[in-house]
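ugh ok so i messed up the first submission bc i forgot one of the chains. this is the corrected input, ALL of the components this time, i swear. 1414 residues overall. if the numbers dont match what u have on ur side tell me asap before i send this to the collaborators (the ones from the other lab, u know who)
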Amino acid sequence: MSERQPTTAKINSDLLGPVNKPGRGWYATVTVSGLVVLAAAGALAYQFSRGLGVWGINRPVFWALDITNFVFWIGISHAGTLISAILRVTGAEWRRPVTRCAEAITVFALMIGALFPIIHLGRPQLFYWLVPYPNERGLWPNFRSPLAWDFFAINTYLLGSIIYLYLPLIPDLALLRDKSRGLWRRFYGALSLGWKGTQLQWDRLERAVRVMAVVIIPVAVSVHTIVSWDFAMTIRPMWHSTMFGPYFVAGAIFSGIAALIIAMAVIRRVFHLEDYLQPIHFNNLGLLLLTMSLIWFYFTFGEYLTTWYGNLPDEMAVFDSKVSGVYSPFFWGTVICCFAVPAPLLAIKRFRTIKGTVIASMLVVVGMWFERFLIIVPTLARPRFTFNWGTYSPTWVEIMLTAGTFAYFVLLYSIFTRLFPIIAIWEYKEGLAVAREPSTSSSSVSSPLTEST
Amino acid sequence: MKRREFIILSGIGATSASLLSACGHPEEKLIPALIPDDEYVPGIDYWKASTCGMCSAGCGIIVRTREHKANKIEGNPLHPVNRGALCARGQAGLEVLYNPDRIKGPMKRIGERGEGKWEEITWDEAIKTLAEKLREIKLQGDASGIVFATLSSRGVIGIAIDFLSSALDAKFWTTRESSSRELARGYPLSYGRAATPIFDISNATYLLSFGARFLETWHSPVMYSLAFGEFRRSRGKARGKFVQVEPRMSMTGANADEWLPAAVGSEGLIALAIAQVIIREKLIKDATSLKFPIEPLDEYAPEQTATLTGIAAETIVRVAREFAASERPLAIGPGAGSSQELGEMDDVAIHFLNTLSGNINKSGGVLLPASDRFDAFDALPPAEVRGTGWWSINELSIRINNSKPAGLPALLVHQVNPVLVAPRSVEWIEGLPFIASFSSFMDETTQLADLIMPDHTDLERWDLHSMLMAGSTAAVSLVQPVVAPQHNTMQTADVLLAVCRDLEFKEADSEAYQSAEAMVKYAAQRLKSPDHSSDAEGEPLKSFLEAGVCVRDAPRKGFSFEFQPFDFSALLSQTEATNDSYPLTLLCYEHASLGSGDAANLPALQELPDPLTSVVWGSWVEINPKTAASLGVNDGDLVEVATEHGSVRAPAVLYPPIRPEVIAMPYGQGHTSYGRYANGRGPNVFVLNPFGMPGESVRARVTKVGGKAELIRFGTELQERMEKRR
Amino acid sequence: MTEEAKEKKPQWAMVIDLDRCTGCEACVVACRVENNIPTVGPEEAAKGRSINWIRVERYFEGEYPDVKVKFMPVLCQHCEEAPCEPVCPVYATYRTDEGLNAQVYNRCVGTRYCANNCPYTVRFFNFFDPVWDAPLDKALNPEVSVRTRGVMEKCTFCIQRIRKGQEKAKDEDREVRDGDVVPACVQTCQTKAMYFGNIADPESEVSRLSKSNRATRLLEELGTKPRVIYLNKGD
Ligand SMILES: Nc1nc2c(c(=O)[nH]1)N[C@H]1C(S)=C(S)[C@@H](COP(=O)(O)OP(=O)(O)OC[C@H]3O[C@@H](n4cnc5c(=O)[nH]c(N)nc54)[C@H](O)[C@@H]3O)O[C@H]1N2
Ligand SMILES: Nc1nc2c(c(=O)[nH]1)N[C@H]1C(S)=C(S)[C@@H](COP(=O)(O)OP(=O)(O)OC[C@H]3O[C@@H](n4cnc5c(=O)[nH]c(N)nc54)[C@H](O)[C@@H]3O)O[C@H]1N2
Ligand code: SF4
Ligand code: SF4
Ligand code: SF4
Ligand code: SF4
Ligand code: SF4
Ligand SMILES: [Mo]
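and heres the new structure output, hopefully the right one now
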């Protein structure tokens, strides 16, 4: 890690800085994103009052930006928990300043993604009909429907990732409690669940975090697999694919890492955390991103090659529309954004800088959004009987809602950084302790840092 | 009752039911807990029989009513014309009755003419005003200059117009329907009688149609569609072969086994070429039955005329052999092309094929009516009335425009819209001192009226349709109100009779002529009896009102007709009117559902995709893809179509089955004043050929213009396919 | 009807003879007026939102002058193995014991998933509330519910007419006979190209025709087992 060894006090003040004194940039960010969110809420209210017709969806393109955003944000959510859990489980030491940042992304991205299955309903007021509970209608949801699976998968994941974010937050909450006064003290006090930093508490926390890390990985994998099954379970050309599960999961992790890199770069800059989020983190995440880019390309190539080689007319109609037809700008744009530019950029060490990885990540995020769009719309626009082929273009409402998701994400994230340290203070300190005491193997971090509280 | 019990049960024990059925398909048991449509206990329907008024074919309908509201029209299964079926237009009939843009009551103009300011008046006042006006005209001695424009010269309106002209002691200028049926001038020359023959398509084995859109417009689309179904498939009969000759493939042509894209106006030559092959190859089945000398027709041999017709000689020879070899061949026509200058000759040439194959009055052939004329209203007591002269709206307009008669005193307009369909009539209509409209809708002509006296719609009025059927029968089809009048309207015949009474025309006082209803009932009571004597018990009337149709023997007339050989040579010397500034030929045709525009105010038909282009809510120009490419026109581009008469703009549709030198446009749109569904939905195509008859072609030019074209299509295959081809 | 068929619930099916069908679309309008299908107007139609429970697909084949046209009426195929059914999360679309693919409007929450998984593209969504400018609403069929915004709809095989036919047979104390139930599209068909009846009854017209050597089903290879049988052109 870093050469200098910062003092505990400096760590505390650096990392609690955003919480205590957010600064002007923070207020600006919250204001701007808040306004966009308000505008999007207005668009949503308009949609609810007029009906789904204010969207650009039609027959046969019944899903478009709604599900694009859904899949995209659920994908982004994989940043988080999955990456941090994998890094934790594998004991990657460099993870320490990254995990919270990632876990927070997960929770917010999921919250946003999970909105869409509700707001995209024709009758959103009845969304609870998808919830299994004994009711006067005498009906359970249809467990054969992937949408019902989504309900469980997303809720499980959301719950899991909230817990997973929350558990490692407890010691830091206690720290905040001790450093704050008045209402804030009560707020953090309540959240820290009476954390005293006893050995027993540390033991339990460590164990719980480790268990959650192991549990959350299959949950995360299953979530995006199930999301992919929304498509793969149908009999639509270029949806009905056995490899959609891993393809979606890989894409999700891919876009998740990219989102994480961007978030880290922003935090580093805005909160002056250059000492904590160092080039090494970007380098390592950049390597991960490169790996995922290659995997993504492999899947995409495999998916399209088999379609092309199989040459089934129904599939080829969709294939053609993507590769050479109306959607080809998006398709080739996606290939450029997700592979052609980021892969070389990240492969060449000289470019794997903070700037380089951030550029690559931005391209990947954009590319992956369009990739989701491309999975959904072309297939729907090319039904089997050509008489029913259709087109799609979004309305301002859908564009506003899409912008709103990004703004909402920024807003939630900003508020989070205002309330909680975005870098896990105790984990960071623990990391320093581990570094100081090389004999202690990373897998058996059992000696807690008690001095902080 | 079982189902309902189950609902209650499952309502109580919903959760346990779902637990019990956890395996298998639980939804089957659970769904009935909600009340879906299939649980609805039907109420009681009342069906009323009447006749469809959406075109002149006269299909029988039965209308389902509940709580004094009509909610569905169906074909009358007892009716000999349509045997229960209806076309798309007929199905949409309730949208006329309940149209939100109907005129709700009589009105008189208070603003400037055409300004659209009206004042509601009472019917008494309206009738008084009209009678006053007509009396004034009569006193000035101008009554014979009155133009009475109407759709039909038959039925109660025809009688009422005769009464009115007698009351005014004048011979009006009157219009009548100009349908292809009436326009087919070749029938009398081919078959020796004025009444339209019935073509026994169902029993034919080979059908050669010269541009007749018999499945969509033409004489009677439902009747011939039914026949076509049987022609295609019926038990114990081989599948018939159908060949259509026309420059632009119509929906009818699309159903043909073979399409011969003959040059515009070459139908007669094709028919003669086929005849020539039959004669030269001695394929006439029963040459002895032909009572006229058979000429070799060598100058019409397919080899000679191929360049004129655009159809290869081998094709003609093959078709001729197939036609002659087939068991029951039938040639039908003409299409609209016959209203061209030499149309009559074309018609005779087409029907000469039937004469040659000896299929007249044979199964699968041409069935000639037993009489020239049949009218159930002949049973009405004789009245002293005078007749009027009848022209088609275009003929009338041409006459008036040409002769420019000074001081036409008034226009009375009923069920026609000359401003739309004969645009040049505006020239004389606008200057008229008095215009009264009987229209149910504020159409472009009514917009100019001084007095509006809205008519009942078809489902509110009384009338009889008399028709000659095959097999020397005749049918009388009843038009009767199926619901009470929806607005303060009055049947135009009744208005005219009231005006006659006001003018002290004594014939209108007699019992039988009191009203349309009285006329209908009087005649209906005497339907069955040849001597028109009343049926004492009145039973026939009751059952007629219930059944809506009565089939009886047709009056018979002895005909002696010998086909006369005809000199067709003019067909050969036809010179194509080439014109460099108008390199293309424009064909206009009746929109399959919107017709000439009368149905453009019905949303169900506006949103019904055109069968071939799939266009909804608008108009278009059909262009062969090759021609379009040479003009730099893409599918959906806005183009301007210009003829020497005028120009319009519409989106281009690349249409594969049309001759490259031909373009086509449907009528049907072009309204500026016909209610919310019709207005502004595309150009008025009539301006391109303002003196035309249906199907009269005109030279045209197409240029691509900038601007956004509104081309809305339901299905997209055509467009995508074009994209791919390029 | 055979004894065996009598015991079972009827299994409704339709046969469409493509050799007879002329593409006239009378069936399309008949279905609209019978089933209270709203027109959506030009703006919405331009967005691809017009509703036709039955449509006539038209295909051009070949190039001038050898152009052939194919017309094919397509409605809900009432698939025995309907792909639209399992994906519905709320059982708003399901199989009835008479072999219909039923749609419960009140139950539908409007995910549109079913429409995406219908290989025949015969499901239609109410993007807005339907409008009938008064007094056009007077012509609404009282036996068919008007669908609200946000729900899916499609051909029901004229369930209200099936029920009516069955009620009538019951009133007359007899079995439902072939021809008792006639959906609106079949009723009006100008060429009598459509047939409707109980395919479980081996003596019904649809059963007889379904055994024709011209009989096919659309996209049979998908295994949806449609209940609409098409008779091909030709001999
Ligand atoms: N559904 C429906 N049925 C109707 C009507 C309706 O509006 N709708 N209207 C009724 C009435 S009033 C009438 S008049 C009849 C009209 O019915 P038709 O007599 O069938 O006339 P159009 O429908 O105009 O068809 C004209 C046909 O002739 C072709 N054509 C046009 N110009 C020429 C030409 O110069 N030469 C040749 N050879 N062909 C040409 C066109 O391409 C088209 O195929 O239909 C009646 N029936
Ligand atoms: N150039 C050219 N000119 C043509 C033709 C052509 O092919 N080319 N075709 C000719 C032919 S075949 C025809 S049939 C005519 C068509 O000519 P029209 O019959 O004049 O045309 P429509 O548009 O059918 O007009 C019918 C009018 O009747 C009114 N109406 C509707 N329902 C009712 C009702 O219930 N009662 C009353 N009283 N009125 C009602 C409506 O206001 C409507 O405007 O055009 C002719 N003109
Ligand atoms: S052909 Fe159609 S519009 Fe004409 S009378 Fe028959 S049903 Fe009515
Ligand atoms: S045709 Fe489509 S909507 Fe109808 S049952 Fe089959 S899958 Fe379902
Ligand atoms: S749109 Fe309605 S019927 Fe279709 S899947 Fe969704 S809830 Fe079920
Ligand atoms: S069966 Fe009934 S609901 Fe289905 S398409 Fe025909 S008319 Fe419409
Ligand atoms: S009504 Fe009959 S002939 Fe006309 S399109 Fe429909 S199925 Fe075909
Ligand atoms: Mo006409």
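quick check: The interface with chain A takes residues 10-11, 14-15, 17-18, 26-27, 30, 33-34, 614, 715-717, 720-721 of chain B (CB under 8 Å). that seems consistent at least. The CA atoms of residues 287 and 596 of chain B lie 44 Å apart.
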